[in-house]
Amino acid sequence: MEKKLMKGCEAIGEAAICAGARLFFGYPITPQNEIPEYLSSRMPQVGGTFVQAESEVAASNMLYGASGAGKRVITSSSSPGISLMGEALSYMAGAELPAVIVSIMRAGPGLGGILPSQSDYFQATKGGGHGDYRVMVLAPETVQEAVDHTIKAFDYADKYRNPVIILADGILGQMMEPVTFPEPVRPEDLPEKPWATTGAKGRERNIVNSLYLNPDVLEERNWQLVKKYEAMREDVEFDTYHLDDEVDVMIVAYGTVARIARTAVDTMREQGMRVGLFRPVTVYPFPSDALAEAADKAGAVLTSELSTGQMLEDVKAAIAGKRPVEFFGRVGGNLMAPEEIVEQVTALMERQGRSVA
Amino acid sequence: MQSEIILAGFGGQGVLLIGKLIALAGMDDNREVTWMPAYGPEMRGGTCNCTVVVGDKKIGSPISKRPHHLIALNLPSLDKFEDEVRPGGIIVTNTSLINRRPKRDDIKLVEVPANAIAIEAGSPRAANMVALGAFAAASGLVTLEGLIDVLDKNLAKNPKLAEINRVAVSRGYELGRAGA
Amino acid sequence: MPTVHVEKDRCKGCELCTRVCPEQALGMSEKINAKGYFYPVAKEADKCTGCRRCVLMCPDEAIQVEVKGKRTAPPEALTGAPLHYCPGCTHGVIHSLIGDAIDHLGIREKTVGIAPVGCSVLAYNYFNVDMQQASHGRALALATGIKRGRPDLAVFTYQGDGDLASIGMAETVHAANRGEKVTAIFVNNAIYGMTGGQMAPTTLPGQITSTTRAGRDVKHAGEPIRMVELLNELQTPAYLTRVSVHDPKHILAARKAIRKAFKYQMDGVCFSLVEILSTCPTGWGQTPHDACGWVVDKMTPYFPLGDKKVPEAA
Ligand SMILES: Cc1ncc(C[n+]2csc(CCOP(=O)(O)OP(=O)(O)O)c2C)c(N)n1
Fold first, then answer.
1. What is the structure's pLDDT at A127?
2. Contacting residues of A for C137, CB less than 8 Å apart
3. Do A130 and A228 have their domain in common?
4. A176 and B35: CB-CB below 8 Å?
């Protein structure tokens, strides 16, 4: 297979086409402009459609409509724009509509900055919009993984009839790495969606809706959705590095921070330190069981994120007090150097009374 | 072995492009590569840089606060990154625009009058290619053939420019080899 | 004899001043300034008539002219902080005109400005008045809140075409329809400058942008929106006008319109919106001079200049 050097954003755009999506609705915002820019010229080449919407509110509701009509559809944005998509996300989750939303995080709150961040973890995994709902969230760390996740996201979205978010920071969006693409899916080969509003020819009418005025009916629906969210556990993914044997410190990190942490682990291993890395790949559903198991073999846990401590809450819930969990974060668009993680781990080991070498 | 390189200059000098060419040549050589631009509004018209990492195993951080090597096409870039380069690393400076030598004496210095040579090669815009050639020779990270090959594959649309680029890279390569 | 004073380190070398000098008294320097740009020098100083066209045209407040001991000065309503705009971008010219209007009406200490999301996102650094920073498109909602809370204040928004006519369209139409006594300064540069040159609602048919690489196709993207004409359909009284800042003559007309817009607001007459055709040399891929020409040749036929609606009370 031919390797191509591509920017994360452009690779995500190409992956959507590979997955058989022929519709993109979006609005410019840094640092993900290369997705709409790429697809504005690429979609017409494959008979697809690109629409630059008037806002993210509109783009995400175009997504709702197209998905309701049975089409594979994708949008992308960054933090302030994803905030505006909260409405459509909630409605799509309520109406059980599949769609892929790419969230390239920049630093907040408010207008914040445009540099990389992971401060929209809550927004992606805990809601973003109103109501009791969840969306599946995949957090790639390489451009290749961004491609693979985007393609998988369409399948998960259809499988669970639910929105799926690709959650990455500005680095992954902007960096180039070699990638390969699988055989593309032909849109006409995708299975029919019997629930979609495609014209009630020879069948009962289909209604795409999230309104249930009867509280008992709405309650029943809410519990049914919960069952679906539980079922997503079947597709939980995570990755471990140097965690086969006991470690003094287990680092937990995702996305770009996991890459930085891996460099730090290599350095520490060379110095004879017993350190490993646990990387959640799906951050919703969160790999809680696997993380708890891994923690059994660790002296202490260090969660590292580009936030003031968001995934930290999931890590603590999973480990449930069995091990000390500490935190190291950088925010505002700043990144940690591998050396800073080494320092943090060393300090943690000393506090735990463990010999560093 | 993993090499982390920072390439920096004015916006428009083409540092992102030569970074990409190193990454492409590395990729063709079946090595792991990443290319990461510094981005932001301040980039417009101002200074511009990218980080390229070339290695033999899966690359961790795609950015580096302690790069092995630096290619500086203008003075602000040398001022900004000189201190970060690891001892023993290579610093390529464009003496056409940089009127001082690096303060460091624990690095390998490669000085090239990139703009002057580019003008000789046919276009002042090829200064980046001269620096690229010099770096390739001094570091051995990518071969001249590898670079010419990616140039031909990626920048061959304008044959005249392609030839200028080839000449500029080759001239830089000779200087880099002599200077190293 | 008039003297031209150039604050050389503010200059970004756009050469708009040398181009508008009717006497060719100005030329560009041989040396570069601290920012790395060539700057204007009065090469033939004796030819200067003190017409001040260069002062009006400079987007960076870098030129002042002294005639008989009287020296032009930048408006007090501007902080004087160096502007971050690209060389030759006329956002800076428009800033000066707003500063002038505020000074002219003597309302600096009771003005609140609203910075949008767009290239002028940092406008709060430049206007020497109280400022609020809005989210993308919502400036006129903030303005409504401020004005309803403090009707005695002068409230203005400063918005690009993406901000005011795309994502903020609903806020714009409704603020105008409610007749909010605020002033919207609408900078139409036919592109999204800040995010790197994507299509705007005002992008011209066939115009190349980073999301319309084959040119705007009106079959899919629709025709450019004429905001002043669109708002004119509302029955609520308003002051709606379109001006341009591509040359000194038009800058003077724009100055008049902006002063008027603020005046209507202060007199409690009506909502006012001044659409200003502005350049984006970076986004359009043109020299600052050519960009001014493009405004005349391409933009003004589609976006005709002049008052569209004037309140009856006036
Ligand atoms: C909700 C939201 N969406 C998108 C953006 C990204 N964004 C920043 S500026 C801008 C448009 C700027 O264009 P315009 O309003 O025409 O002003 P200009 O930059 O041309 O002066 C966009 C889309 C944002 N900050 N917030």
1. 82
2. 55
3. yes
4. yes
Has residue C82 been placed in a domain?
A: no
Tokens of A112: 């914040």
For B102-108, the CB contacts below 8 A with 24+ separation are B102/B78, B108/B138, B108/B180
Q: Strand C63-67 and strand C70-71: pairing?
A: antiparallel
Q: Are A227 and A187 found together in one domain?
A: yes
* Distances A68 to A152, A161, A191, A195, B86 between C-alpha atoms, Å: 20, 10, 15, 8, 56
Largest CA distance in chain C: 59
Q: How far is CA A284 from CA A138, A281, A316, C26, C32, in A?
A: 7, 9, 15, 64, 55
- Contact A59/A100 with Cβ under 8 angstroms? no
Residues A179 and A135 in one domain: yes
B127 touches B165 (CB < 8 A): no
C-beta atoms of A41 and C214 within 8 A: yes
**What domains can you pick out in chain B, each with its CATH number?**
3-179 (3.40.920.10)
**Residue the block writes with tokens 């980046």:** B128
CA A154/CA A100 separation, integer angstroms? 6
Residues A160, A39 share a domain: yes
Query: Which A positions 167-186 lie with beta carbon below 8 A of chain B?
Result: 170-171, 174-178
Please report, in tens digits, the pLDDT of each residue of chain A (357 residues total).
789 999 999 999 999 999 999 999 999 999 999 999 999 999 999 999 999 999 999 999 999 999 999 999 999 999 999 999 999 999 999 999 999 999 999 999 999 999 999 999 999 999 889 999 999 999 999 999 999 999 999 999 999 999 999 999 999 999 999 999 999 999 999 999 999 999 999 999 999 999 999 999 999 999 999 999 999 999 999 999 999 999 999 999 999 999 999 999 999 999 999 999 999 999 999 999 999 999 999 999 999 999 999 999 999 999 999 999 999 999 999 999 999 999 999 999 999 988 776
Number of domains in chain C: 2
Q: C88 and C81 in contact (C-beta within 8 Å)?
A: no
C130 shares its domain with C60: no
Establish if C86 belongs to a structural domain: no
Chain B residues in contact with C282 by the CB 8 A cut-off are: 44-45
- Chain A residues within 8 A of C133 when measuring between CB atoms: 110-111
Q: Which domain holds residue C165?
A: 91-309
Whether pTM > 0.90 for this model: the answer is: yes
Within an 8 Å CB–CB cutoff, is residue C88 touching chain B? Answer: no
One domain, residues A78 and A222: yes
Please check whether residues A299 and A173 belong to one and the same domain.
no
One domain, residues A178 and A289: no
What's the ipTM?
A: 0.94
Contact C167 A27 (CB under 8 A): yes
Q: Which residues line ligand 1 (CB under 6 A)?
A: A 27-29, 56, 80-81, 84; C 117-120, 136, 160-163, 187, 189, 191-195, 200
Q: What is the DSSP letter of B165?
A: H
Please tell me the distance between residue A29's alpha carbon and the centre of ligand 1 in angstroms: 7
Closest C-alpha residue for ligand 1 atom 2:
A81
CA geometry: angle C10, C12, C16, nearest 5 deg: 110
Q: How many other C-beta atoms can be found within 10 angstroms of the C-beta atom of residue B38?
A: 18
How many angstroms separate the Cα of C131 from the Cα of each of B132, C61, C112, C140? 47, 21, 5, 13
Q: How far is A68 from chain B (nearest CA, A)?
A: 37
